[in-house]
Predict the 3D structure of the following.
Amino acid sequence: MHYWKRLSHNEQDRRISQALQQNIDYKQTLSLGIPASRLDPVVFYDQAGFLKDAPLLRAVIQNPNHIGCHTIGDSEHFFRGTQQLEREVIELLSVDLLKAQHNSCDGFIAAGGTEANLEAAWIYRNFFLREKEATHSQIALLASADTHYSVAKAANILNLNWLSVPVQEQTRLIDPESLDGILDEAQAAGYKYFIVIANMGTTMFGSVDNPEIFSEALKRRKLDFKLHIDGAFGGFIYPVSEPENNVNFTNADVSSITLDAHKMLQAPYGTGVFLIRKGLIHFALTKEAQYVQGMDLTVNGSRSGANAIAVWMILMTYGPFGWLEKINKLLYRTKWAARKLEKMGVAFYRHPRMNIITMRATKAVAALAHQYGLVPDSHGANAKWYKIVVMDHVELDHLEDFIRDLEKELAKQTAA
């Protein structure tokens, strides 16, 4: 590891305090033009004694705005201290987690995985429009049927067609024959450029796409494409549980990656991560944002610098080995529950390196869905699957209670 290391609370406090001191202090510095301030002290009391030991809360109160992208060009100098912590997070995740070369990626803390996926599609659409002189009708989004709904949202917002590739029912893997058929039809319909979004942990199943299935099929047809990895769920798990993988920056076809810190990293909601190889993010430049120093390269515009500090703190609190231990603990619990279900004859899907178990929607499983907070693939009477996500709060005791009640429910329905 080059950048990822464990820091004590005191060292974190020192670094964050230094960063906040480099930011604008609205009480001490005269600033007539910036349309921002600290949190309203009439509503949010900023003199509480506990704040001296809570650097993140101090950052929330000071309210840094991290508008723009701080890994490229200039940025708003009012918040230069905390911007540096965000740059450190981007480099750490790019190099130490996702195996990029040093200083080879741009990126920013996004509002979530949906914004990060939209950012990728936006950049690549503009790339094809400007560099290849493509028309909208020649560009398509290509992703599996299990992909997150943010892909459909991106297609709608960006006026692109989403080509959904079926997956195999049992394995959740992309079906190569179906992909070939879809690409043949797309090529015949005039599509020449493809924005591919492959999954590093789907939301419902935790399944991981093999991006080479996409890239090889497109290369055989000499079709131009850009490949984005949606690691919104699996991005903080899979690179740790399966270090030798092809959904990181060692894969030359991968141009960008989404992570979601407000899932497995347990950062505040509204905390995603967008990472992209250098030389591409400028296709999202909004030239009209002339009043923003460095201008804006993001969908969301203004965003909380405190969220970037939260990600930095979490990573530095655990360090790489502490994080490995945490992930292995969750995977152990998941494996334990999967073995119990297997012995009971319950049908389910589970990727062996992920912490999701997705069960077939039998009557027995459905009967316990509300009690145990199981999430269906479709709310209403049409659910086919229910999932368990083994997050930090899901302990073996909870899983044991569910297994016991499921055994009772199966016995009851067998007797009936």
Notes: The chain has a mean pLDDT of 95.
